[in-house]
Specification:
The protein is an alpha+beta fold. It has seven helices and seven strands; from the N terminus they run αββαααβββαββαα. The strands form two sheets. The protein has a five-stranded antiparallel beta sheet with strand order 2-1-5-4-3, with helices on both faces. The chain has a two-stranded antiparallel ribbon with strand order 6-7. A hairpin with a 5-residue loop joins strand 4 and strand 5. The protein is elongated and about 70 Å long.
């Protein structure tokens, strides 16, 4: 079991009901830069940014009051240099011989890079939407089922329909119904 802990890419921990670390696997060094002995015996909140402490304390108090398994709880931790690391935590309650909650055993997975990438993608999508919305050419984005998911104002003018109506339309259903009017549509497909 110890060898599995040592080769895991995730940080495995054990915390008592008071929020004190009793165990931290060696991977805590990779995740947060601390040695295991710098974590054990210390309160969880010592490694949490100030702006996250109230939220995390509320969650912890609820887990102590209502013991249960939790999964993929996103939280912020401070590494040894004071930088924020985004982790997903999962854990399960540990009970003593009298059936009382002793604490939790769990695992933290560093998702900082993934979350930063997701945020960059969201920012880029917002920028693209701003640009496409301002274009003079009509743009439609159609999903795999043929339903229009996005239309810019120029498309609304081109098809003589409000944006709300276009977004409810399946592509292929006539969107331009004026007799004698020709609408040129360029189709691009991405698989």
């Amino acid at each position: 079991f110890q060898s599995v802990l040592e080769i895991s890419n995730d940080w495995i921990w054990e915390i008592d009901r008071e929020g004190i670390f009793h165990y931290a696997s060696p991977h805590v060094t990779t995740t947060l830069g601390y040695q295991t002995e710098e974590i054990t015996g210390k309160p969880l909140l010592n490694f949490v940014p100030d702006e996250e402490q109230t939220r995390l304390k509320k969650i912890w108090d609820d887990l102590v009051a209502n013991p249960r398994i939790f999964q993929n709880l996103e939280n912020l931790s401070l590494d040894k240099q004071g930088s924020v690391t985004i982790c997903e935590s999962s854990g399960f309650p540990i009970f003593d011989d009298q059936g009382q909650l002793w604490g939790y055993r769990g695992i933290d997975h560093d998702v900082t890079e993934r979350k930063l990438s997701e945020n960059r993608i969201k920012e880029q999508e917002a920028q693209l939407k701003t640009i496409v919305t301002a274009l003079g050419d009509g743009w439609l984005i159609v999903d795999q089922t043929g339903k229009i998911q996005f239309a810019n104002p120029a498309a609304s003018e081109m098809f003589h329909k409000p944006l709300e109506t276009l977004l409810k339309t399946e592509f292929g259903v006539p969107v331009a119904q004026e007799v004698g009017k020709t609408v040129e549509i360029d189709l691009f497909s991405h698989k």
